[in-house]
Design goal:
Elements: H1 4-15, E1 25-30, E2 33-38, E3 42-48, E4 62-71, H2 80-84, E5 88-91, E6 95-101, E7 105-114, E8 122-132, E9 138-148, E10 159-165, E11 168-173, E12 178-184, E13 190-195, H3 197-204, E14 222-228, E15 230-240, E16 245-256, H4 263-273
Antiparallel strand pairs: 1-2, 2-3, 4-9, 5-6, 6-7, 7-8, 8-16, 9-15, 10-11, 10-14, 11-12, 12-16, 13-15
Amino acid sequence: MVPIRALLSTVAVLATLAPPAAAANFNLADRNSSAVISDRNGATVWRVAPSGQNPAAFADNIFLSNYYYRIGSTGNEAPLLVALGAPETRSTANSVQFSFRSADLAATIDWQLKGDAGGVLATLSKTVSFTNLSAAAIDFHLFDYTDFDIRFNALTQLDTARLVSPGRIITSSSSIPFSIDASAQVAADRYQISNFITPYFQFFIDQDGPTTLPNTPALGAEFPATPGDTAFAFQWSRMIAPGDSFTVGQVARYLPTSSVPEPANWAYFIAGFGLIGIAARRRTAKAA
Protein backbone atom coordinates (compact mmCIF):
# COMPACT_ATOMS: atom_id res chain seq x y z
CA MET A 1 0.00 0.00 0.00
CA VAL A 2 1.40 3.41 -0.96
CA PRO A 3 1.76 5.70 2.11
CA ILE A 4 -0.60 8.65 1.82
CA ARG A 5 2.10 11.30 2.16
CA ALA A 6 4.28 9.52 -0.39
CA LEU A 7 1.27 9.59 -2.71
CA LEU A 8 0.80 13.30 -2.03
CA SER A 9 4.45 13.82 -2.92
CA THR A 10 3.81 12.24 -6.32
CA VAL A 11 0.74 14.42 -6.81
CA ALA A 12 2.80 17.48 -5.98
CA VAL A 13 5.42 16.58 -8.58
CA LEU A 14 2.77 16.02 -11.26
CA ALA A 15 1.14 19.34 -10.34
CA THR A 16 4.43 21.15 -10.90
CA LEU A 17 5.42 20.15 -14.42
CA ALA A 18 7.32 23.41 -14.91
CA PRO A 19 9.26 23.72 -11.63
CA PRO A 20 10.53 27.09 -10.37
CA ALA A 21 14.10 27.79 -9.34
CA ALA A 22 15.68 24.80 -7.63
CA ALA A 23 15.32 24.82 -3.86
CA ALA A 24 18.35 24.89 -1.57
CA ASN A 25 18.44 23.28 1.89
CA PHE A 26 20.31 24.56 4.95
CA ASN A 27 21.17 22.38 7.95
CA LEU A 28 20.92 24.19 11.28
CA ALA A 29 22.13 22.87 14.63
CA ASP A 30 22.20 24.19 18.17
CA ARG A 31 23.02 21.97 21.17
CA ASN A 32 20.27 19.33 21.41
CA SER A 33 18.33 20.38 18.30
CA SER A 34 18.71 20.25 14.52
CA ALA A 35 16.60 21.53 11.63
CA VAL A 36 16.57 21.63 7.84
CA ILE A 37 15.36 24.86 6.24
CA SER A 38 14.54 25.18 2.54
CA ASP A 39 14.42 28.47 0.67
CA ARG A 40 11.29 27.15 -1.08
CA ASN A 41 9.47 25.11 1.57
CA GLY A 42 10.64 26.52 4.89
CA ALA A 43 11.17 24.10 7.77
CA THR A 44 11.22 20.50 6.61
CA VAL A 45 12.95 18.81 9.57
CA TRP A 46 13.07 19.67 13.27
CA ARG A 47 14.54 17.19 15.74
CA VAL A 48 15.01 17.57 19.49
CA ALA A 49 17.00 15.19 21.69
CA PRO A 50 17.49 14.81 25.45
CA SER A 51 20.68 16.38 26.74
CA GLY A 52 23.83 14.64 25.54
CA GLN A 53 22.13 12.66 22.76
CA ASN A 54 22.25 13.10 19.00
CA PRO A 55 19.12 14.73 17.50
CA ALA A 56 19.58 12.63 14.34
CA ALA A 57 18.59 9.56 16.36
CA PHE A 58 15.18 11.02 17.20
CA ALA A 59 12.00 11.25 15.16
CA ASP A 60 11.09 14.43 13.29
CA ASN A 61 8.66 16.97 14.81
CA ILE A 62 7.57 18.80 11.68
CA PHE A 63 6.23 17.97 8.23
CA LEU A 64 6.20 21.46 6.80
CA SER A 65 6.11 25.08 7.94
CA ASN A 66 6.21 27.92 5.43
CA TYR A 67 4.86 31.30 4.38
CA TYR A 68 2.63 31.67 1.32
CA TYR A 69 1.12 34.86 -0.08
CA ARG A 70 -1.33 36.22 -2.63
CA ILE A 71 -1.81 39.71 -4.03
CA GLY A 72 -5.44 40.62 -4.72
CA SER A 73 -8.65 38.61 -4.39
CA THR A 74 -8.06 36.18 -7.25
CA GLY A 75 -5.43 33.57 -8.09
CA ASN A 76 -3.47 31.11 -6.01
CA GLU A 77 -1.11 31.51 -3.09
CA ALA A 78 2.62 30.86 -3.63
CA PRO A 79 5.81 30.51 -1.59
CA LEU A 80 8.32 33.32 -1.98
CA LEU A 81 10.78 31.35 -4.12
CA VAL A 82 8.06 30.60 -6.67
CA ALA A 83 6.70 34.15 -6.77
CA LEU A 84 9.91 36.17 -6.42
CA GLY A 85 12.74 33.93 -7.66
CA ALA A 86 15.91 32.70 -5.98
CA PRO A 87 17.01 34.66 -2.89
CA GLU A 88 20.28 35.97 -1.59
CA THR A 89 21.27 33.88 1.43
CA ARG A 90 23.18 34.39 4.65
CA SER A 91 23.63 31.61 7.19
CA THR A 92 25.31 30.67 10.47
CA ALA A 93 25.41 27.37 12.35
CA ASN A 94 21.92 27.93 13.79
CA SER A 95 20.31 30.57 11.54
CA VAL A 96 19.62 31.40 7.91
CA GLN A 97 18.26 34.47 6.14
CA PHE A 98 16.64 34.53 2.68
CA SER A 99 16.28 37.88 0.87
CA PHE A 100 13.93 37.97 -2.14
CA ARG A 101 13.29 40.84 -4.52
CA SER A 102 11.20 41.59 -7.60
CA ALA A 103 10.37 44.87 -9.32
CA ASP A 104 7.37 45.46 -7.03
CA LEU A 105 8.06 43.55 -3.81
CA ALA A 106 10.98 42.77 -1.50
CA ALA A 107 10.84 40.12 1.21
CA THR A 108 13.18 38.75 3.86
CA ILE A 109 12.73 35.60 5.96
CA ASP A 110 14.91 34.97 9.02
CA TRP A 111 15.04 31.50 10.64
CA GLN A 112 16.71 30.69 13.95
CA LEU A 113 17.10 27.46 15.93
CA LYS A 114 17.76 27.49 19.68
CA GLY A 115 18.54 24.27 21.51
CA ASP A 116 18.77 23.50 25.22
CA ALA A 117 21.99 22.39 26.89
CA GLY A 118 20.31 20.87 29.90
CA GLY A 119 17.12 19.13 28.77
CA VAL A 120 14.73 18.44 25.92
CA LEU A 121 13.55 21.97 25.13
CA ALA A 122 14.07 23.77 21.82
CA THR A 123 12.80 26.79 19.88
CA LEU A 124 12.38 27.19 16.12
CA SER A 125 11.53 30.75 15.10
CA LYS A 126 10.99 32.74 11.91
CA THR A 127 10.25 36.31 10.88
CA VAL A 128 9.13 37.52 7.43
CA SER A 129 9.03 41.12 6.24
CA PHE A 130 7.52 42.42 2.98
CA THR A 131 8.16 45.88 1.48
CA ASN A 132 6.08 47.42 -1.30
CA LEU A 133 8.49 48.73 -3.97
CA SER A 134 5.77 49.78 -6.39
CA ALA A 135 3.96 53.10 -6.83
CA ALA A 136 0.53 51.66 -5.91
CA ALA A 137 -0.92 50.07 -2.79
CA ILE A 138 -0.78 46.25 -2.66
CA ASP A 139 -3.78 44.18 -1.53
CA PHE A 140 -1.67 41.65 0.37
CA HIS A 141 -2.74 38.30 1.90
CA LEU A 142 -0.17 36.31 3.90
CA PHE A 143 -0.55 32.72 5.14
CA ASP A 144 1.58 30.87 7.69
CA TYR A 145 1.02 27.11 7.23
CA THR A 146 2.45 24.64 9.76
CA ASP A 147 2.13 20.89 10.18
CA PHE A 148 3.79 19.70 13.39
CA ASP A 149 4.27 15.95 13.94
CA ILE A 150 5.53 15.49 17.48
CA ARG A 151 8.09 12.68 17.28
CA PHE A 152 6.42 11.42 14.14
CA ASN A 153 5.21 7.83 14.33
CA ALA A 154 3.79 6.41 11.10
CA LEU A 155 1.38 4.11 12.95
CA THR A 156 0.28 6.33 15.83
CA GLN A 157 0.42 9.98 14.80
CA LEU A 158 -1.99 11.13 17.50
CA ASP A 159 -1.89 14.90 17.86
CA THR A 160 -4.47 17.50 18.82
CA ALA A 161 -4.35 21.29 18.44
CA ARG A 162 -6.25 24.25 19.88
CA LEU A 163 -6.28 27.99 19.40
CA VAL A 164 -5.65 29.54 22.83
CA SER A 165 -5.56 33.15 21.60
CA PRO A 166 -5.46 34.91 18.19
CA GLY A 167 -2.14 33.88 16.67
CA ARG A 168 -1.26 31.20 19.23
CA ILE A 169 -1.89 27.47 18.70
CA ILE A 170 -0.72 24.61 20.90
CA THR A 171 -0.23 21.19 19.30
CA SER A 172 -0.03 18.31 21.80
CA SER A 173 0.81 14.65 21.40
CA SER A 174 -1.53 12.03 22.82
CA SER A 175 1.20 9.36 22.80
CA ILE A 176 4.05 11.22 24.55
CA PRO A 177 3.89 14.10 27.07
CA PHE A 178 5.19 16.82 24.73
CA SER A 179 3.66 19.85 23.03
CA ILE A 180 4.69 22.52 20.54
CA ASP A 181 3.49 25.99 21.49
CA ALA A 182 3.46 28.29 18.42
CA SER A 183 2.80 32.00 18.80
CA ALA A 184 2.70 34.69 16.11
CA GLN A 185 4.18 38.14 16.65
CA VAL A 186 1.06 39.80 15.21
CA ALA A 187 -2.38 38.43 16.08
CA ALA A 188 -3.80 36.68 13.03
CA ASP A 189 -6.88 38.00 11.22
CA ARG A 190 -8.05 34.46 10.50
CA TYR A 191 -6.98 30.90 11.27
CA GLN A 192 -7.71 27.24 10.59
CA ILE A 193 -6.96 23.97 12.40
CA SER A 194 -7.72 20.85 10.36
CA ASN A 195 -6.54 17.47 9.15
CA PHE A 196 -3.14 17.89 7.47
CA ILE A 197 -4.54 17.17 3.98
CA THR A 198 -6.67 20.35 3.85
CA PRO A 199 -3.93 23.01 4.12
CA TYR A 200 -1.54 20.79 2.14
CA PHE A 201 -3.80 21.17 -0.87
CA GLN A 202 -4.65 24.80 -0.06
CA PHE A 203 -1.03 25.91 -0.08
CA PHE A 204 1.66 23.38 -0.96
CA ILE A 205 0.03 22.20 -4.18
CA ASP A 206 -2.33 25.14 -4.46
CA GLN A 207 -4.80 24.69 -7.30
CA ASP A 208 -7.99 25.79 -5.54
CA GLY A 209 -7.80 29.53 -6.19
CA PRO A 210 -7.81 32.21 -3.47
CA THR A 211 -7.98 30.95 0.11
CA THR A 212 -9.81 32.56 3.03
CA LEU A 213 -9.38 30.66 6.28
CA PRO A 214 -12.68 29.79 8.02
CA ASN A 215 -11.83 30.53 11.69
CA THR A 216 -12.47 26.93 12.78
CA PRO A 217 -12.62 25.35 15.28
CA ALA A 218 -13.76 27.86 17.92
CA LEU A 219 -11.33 29.53 20.29
CA GLY A 220 -10.27 27.03 22.96
CA ALA A 221 -11.78 24.00 21.22
CA GLU A 222 -9.52 20.99 20.79
CA PHE A 223 -9.26 19.46 17.31
CA PRO A 224 -9.88 16.70 16.42
CA ALA A 225 -12.18 14.96 18.89
CA THR A 226 -10.15 11.78 18.32
CA PRO A 227 -6.41 12.60 18.09
CA GLY A 228 -4.97 12.37 14.58
CA ASP A 229 -2.64 14.14 12.14
CA THR A 230 -3.36 17.86 12.45
CA ALA A 231 -2.10 21.03 10.82
CA PHE A 232 -2.93 24.72 11.07
CA ALA A 233 -2.61 28.04 9.29
CA PHE A 234 -2.80 31.76 10.13
CA GLN A 235 -3.89 34.51 7.73
CA TRP A 236 -3.19 38.25 7.63
CA SER A 237 -4.74 40.64 5.07
CA ARG A 238 -3.24 44.13 4.67
CA MET A 239 -3.17 47.03 2.22
CA ILE A 240 0.53 47.87 1.99
CA ALA A 241 1.11 51.44 0.83
CA PRO A 242 4.02 52.31 -1.51
CA GLY A 243 7.25 52.18 0.46
CA ASP A 244 5.61 50.58 3.52
CA SER A 245 6.37 47.19 5.02
CA PHE A 246 4.50 44.42 6.81
CA THR A 247 6.35 42.15 9.26
CA VAL A 248 5.19 39.11 11.19
CA GLY A 249 6.95 36.23 12.93
CA GLN A 250 6.27 33.01 14.78
CA VAL A 251 8.04 31.30 17.67
CA ALA A 252 7.51 27.54 18.12
CA ARG A 253 8.63 26.04 21.43
CA TYR A 254 9.03 22.29 21.90
CA LEU A 255 8.52 21.45 25.57
CA PRO A 256 6.89 19.01 28.01
CA THR A 257 3.12 19.46 28.05
CA SER A 258 3.23 20.27 31.76
CA SER A 259 5.50 23.25 30.98
CA VAL A 260 3.28 24.96 28.39
CA PRO A 261 2.97 28.56 29.64
CA GLU A 262 -0.34 30.29 30.12
CA PRO A 263 -1.18 33.22 27.77
CA ALA A 264 -0.29 35.79 30.42
CA ASN A 265 3.27 34.41 30.63
CA TRP A 266 3.88 34.01 26.91
CA ALA A 267 5.14 37.58 26.37
CA TYR A 268 8.15 36.85 28.57
CA PHE A 269 9.20 33.96 26.36
CA ILE A 270 8.79 36.05 23.20
CA ALA A 271 10.97 38.77 24.70
CA GLY A 272 13.56 36.22 25.78
CA PHE A 273 13.95 34.62 22.39
CA GLY A 274 13.79 37.83 20.33
CA LEU A 275 11.06 36.50 18.05
CA ILE A 276 13.10 35.72 14.96
CA GLY A 277 10.71 33.22 13.46
CA ILE A 278 9.49 29.86 11.89
CA ALA A 279 8.07 28.58 8.30
CA ALA A 280 7.30 25.43 6.16
CA ARG A 281 8.13 22.38 4.03
CA ARG A 282 7.62 19.41 1.89
CA ARG A 283 9.02 16.12 3.09
CA THR A 284 9.40 13.40 0.48
CA ALA A 285 7.34 10.77 2.32
CA LYS A 286 5.70 9.98 5.59
CA ALA A 287 4.07 6.60 6.00
CA ALA A 288 0.36 6.73 6.76
